[in-house]
Amino acid sequence: MSDPTPHPAEPANEAQPPLNQADAPTEAPAAPLDPLAAAQAEIAVLQAKAAELQDQYVRGQAEVQNARRRADDEVSKARKFALESFADSLLPVVDSLEAGLAVKTATPDQIREGAEATLRQLTSALERNKVIAINPAAGTKFDPAQHQAISVVPAEQEANTIVAVLQKGYLIAERVLRPALVTVTAPK
What we know:
It contains two helices and six strands, in the order H-H-E-E-E-E-E-E. With 188 residues, the protein is of the alpha+beta class. It has a three-stranded antiparallel beta sheet with strand order 1-4-5. The protein has a three-stranded mixed beta sheet with strand order 2-6-3, with no helix packed on it. Strand 4 and strand 5 form a beta hairpin.
């Protein structure tokens, strides 16, 4: 009786067809056998990457400098044009003053009326540019952030309140440009 299992010394099945190229398992390309060549190739890749990163860094630095310069230019222009806008709003006041001075035969009432109209123009121009008067009413609580006490007087009102305004103060965009000069009541 014959044994159907092949012996290790015998080929298993000699009638199998050979593998096609498409059926052959794919293997990774063999690494270079020379370690020096492999290291040099790796160095070349790393140098290319370093050059690319250096280029990106230089471009980034240039972009930051350009952005900084543009921002400085914009701030400079904003300051320049802010002053230009303020000066432009004062030109009608100058025109009114010049027109009033050109009249040689004006009566005192006409001069007063012209001065009041010019003051209204000036006040309006200041308010348009966020310059607001600080003119506290009598009896208002003294605020050292906006008022400067010139004198302290005894009065029949609450202590540390304003008795009189000697000179108006002014705010510019909610910042004190000049405090109001005031007289305040003495503590009791």
